[in-house]
């Protein structure tokens, strides 16, 4: 009987380990999808394939001369650009792999409906299906900024939920001295506020990118050599703008794009202050590694943002800026989760 119990426990641990492994692999795959999405968007390849889910009617993309000629005849308003077809399809295939992985992970949790992580896995499946729809609408609605921004946010949300699922499956509650516990609990509201601010800043970054406003201010720290240039905020943030016909290259006037860029800069200042304050409080609470880590990730992200402006948006740095936003979000989420799971140690008195 004891042997059977041990075997049963080993099987349970094996299955649990596979759930964790899949969640961790899914996190890495989701990060790849987010980075590929940024590369596709920033290389202006979002409409590299004018149809969906294929590319000019191909499972991959047209490469041979006769295939390109046939594609150009079938889509006369969207001639084949070979440097833009492959980024779009590579992004789609990696997204499809992520969908299959999340579906498999959800099935594993569905078989054990009372297990922790069950709800998160089903939220993930819903998110990833919604992401597929946003991917389709991104193409069919010709890069409508509202859809492109929502697609970016959906990718970040998928990444965050996958990472938190892996964290929940791996991390165990630990005990810390009562005074450290109290200090960390008092820090929780500020840390949550920082997470919300980073989420809003990511949304602003998506809106900036989808409206091609990243270079609306070509200098730093001023904008057009002014601290407060002419800016049209009503048009820059008019989310009720009508659909179409094509948003490749953007459809807003210069002052509207300037308003978007300025708002993103202001958001960066707010996020920086909040994260630095969280890091300071974490240091005071006895978590110097977390304090230094958060400041390091923030510093990298700010440096990448400045480099994008002064270097006129080089593609590698622009893509890295998207990855840095994801890293900052995951770092803060992990810190919040660790705060939420610590417990005060109970010392026995002699």
UniProtKB/TrEMBL annotation:
Membrane topology: Multi-pass membrane protein
Keyword Membrane set for record: yes
Broad class of where this protein is predominantly found: membrane
Subcellular location field: Membrane
InterPro entries: COX15/CtaA_fam, COX15/CtaA_HemeA_synthase
Keyword flag Transmembrane: yes
TM region(s), chain numbering: 20-39, 93-110, 122-141, 147-166, 187-207, 262-283, 290-311, 317-337
Taxonomy, superkingdom: Bacteria
UniProt keyword annotations, A-Z: Cell membrane, Disulfide bond, Heme biosynthesis, Iron, Membrane, Metal-binding, Oxidoreductase, Transmembrane, Transmembrane helix
Involved pathway(s): Porphyrin-containing compound metabolism
Protein name: Heme A synthase
Species this protein is from: Microbulbifer harenosus
UniProt lineage: Bacteria, Pseudomonadati, Pseudomonadota, Gammaproteobacteria, Cellvibrionales
